[in-house]
Specification:
69 residues; single chain
Length: 69
């Protein structure tokens, strides 16, 4: 019984890791799309979302208002 429980646990963990890897891949794809959209909307801004973020972080109100529209 204990052996079966361990096998079930390992199988569950493997599934969770596979799900997590799929989510990470999806996040990376979304970040790439967001980066492309930012490049189109703001042609003067070069770089990835990481390089854009610090200027946005200084003014939380503008970030929250822009995401709710």
């Amino acid at each position: 019984v204990e052996r079966q429980a361990q096998v079930d646990l390992e199988s569950s963990l493997d599934q969770k890791f596979a799900n997590m890897e799929a989510l990470i891949a999806e996040n990376a794809r979304c970040l790439k799309e967001i980066s492309e959209i930012i490049t189109v909307l703001f042609p003067g801004i070069e770089g990835t979302p990481e390089s854009v973020q610090p200027s946005m972080a200084g003014n939380p109100e503008s970030v929250s208002s822009s995401t709710t529209e």
